[in-house]
């Protein structure tokens, strides 16, 4: 029987993933949840993080805080994507061990896997060949976090689990016009095109790369399932979380176009980078442990657009 009064710290509670995890925890009856905004606690600052952990001593930690973005953001700010993420991860992982946290979930990213990994991508593919250059700094930071958690487990007997989510979308996403991931970026573009009566929307690349997408609330459900039922010793270094289904970027664009009700054309811009040609996770390990996703892409896009329309459109 799990003690629902344990103290849980969510790092990154304001983001799409962190807020989804918070909602999931509350729905399950957990009430002793702590978090701090960036203005209250700079996770890049070691002394601030250690002071916070010394005071709060959380039992569980969900490390969802990260600097994230799409191809443009990763290409434009490689230093920040590497340094900021390394600082955040190192501080929290070290503090978790230093102050005796019982369990931690570190959220990585599917971009840790090689650009040309065999599909669907198994956990064992990590570090078997070269990364995708457009997000290499972010991927390297996440790989460092995975290896640090594994080293902590091996050297100190901690219970730090690293999970690798596929591409995410959902409530409270980042809809920045340049720094967003593909789904929120396209939601914004199609919405604005409809608003401005444009006759077309242009999307980057050839439209042929295939991607897997998971609704953030499904990821949150998987994360708490892992925290409640699985230990690091059950999964090894990492475990994938995804839907196990994929579509092309052009197919995705048509789904979003239909969701928003845009009547113009979709134009491709093959002068822009495609990124990794295909990225589908093998989720058989998590499925065998008892979890699978619930929200179909078509349904999740409707929820995401409703959230954008009500809270983020300008």
Question: What would your notes on this structure say?
Answer:
This protein has a six-stranded parallel sheet with strand order 2-1-3-4-5-10, with helices on both faces. The chain contains eleven helices and 13 strands. It has a domain at 8-173 and 213-244 and 280-294: NAD(P)-binding Rossmann-like Domain (Rossmann fold), CATH 3.40.50.720. Helix 4 (78-98) packs parallel to helix 5, helix 6 packs across helix 9 and helix 9 (249-260) packs across helix 11. It is of the alpha/beta class and 314 residues long. It is globular and about 60 Å long.
Question: Can you describe this structure in just a few lines?
Answer:
This protein is α/β, with parallel strands linked by helices and 314 residues long.
Per CATH, the class of the domain at 8-173 and 213-244 and 280-294 reads Alpha Beta
Query: How confident overall, as mean pLDDT?
Result: 94
Biggest sheet record: 6 strands, parallel
Large-scale geometry:
globular
Q: Quote the beta fraction.
A: 5-15%
Which fold name corresponds to the CATH topology of the domain at 8-173 and 213-244 and 280-294? Rossmann fold
Largest sheet: spatial strand order: 2-1-3-4-5-10
SS element count, helices? 11
């Amino acid at each position: 029987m799990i003690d629902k009064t344990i103290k849980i710290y969510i790092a990154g509670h304001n983001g799409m993933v962190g807020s989804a995890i918070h909602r999931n925890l509350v729905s399950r009856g957990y009430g002793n949840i702590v978090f701090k905004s960036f203005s209250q606690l700079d996770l890049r600052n070691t002394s601030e993080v250690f002071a916070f952990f010394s005071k709060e001593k959380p039992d569980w930690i969900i490390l969802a805080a990260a600097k994230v973005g799409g191809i443009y953001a990763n290409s434009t700010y490689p230093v920040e994507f590497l340094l900021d993420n390394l600082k955040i991860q190192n501080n929290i992982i070290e503090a978790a061990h230093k102050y005796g946290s019982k369990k931690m979930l570190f959220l990585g990213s599917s971009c840790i896997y090689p650009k040309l990994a065999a599909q669907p991508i198994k956990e064992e593919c990590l570090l078997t060949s070269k990364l995708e250059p457009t997000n290499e700094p972010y991927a390297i930071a996440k790989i460092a976090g995975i290896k640090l958690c594994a080293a902590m487990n091996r050297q100190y007997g901690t219970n730090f689990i690293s999970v690798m989510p596929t591409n995410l979308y959902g409530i409270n996403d980042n809809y920045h016009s340049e720094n967003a991931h593909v789904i929120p970026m396209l939601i914004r573009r199609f919405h604005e095109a409809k608003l401005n009566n444009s006759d077309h929307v242009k999307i980057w690349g050839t439209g042929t790369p295939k991607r897997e997408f998971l609704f953030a609330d499904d990821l949150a459900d998987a994360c708490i399932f892992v925290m409640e039922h699985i230990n690091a010793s059950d999964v090894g270094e990492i475990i994938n979380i995804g839907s196990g289904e994929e579509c092309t970027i052009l197919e995705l664009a048509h789904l979003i176009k239909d969701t928003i009700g845009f009547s113009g054309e979709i134009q491709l811009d093959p002068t822009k980078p495609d990124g990794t040609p295909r990225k589908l996770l093998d989720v058989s390990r998590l499925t065998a442990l008892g979890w699978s996703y619930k929200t179909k892409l078509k349904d999740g896009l409707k929820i995401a657009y409703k959230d954008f329309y009500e809270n983020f459109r300008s």
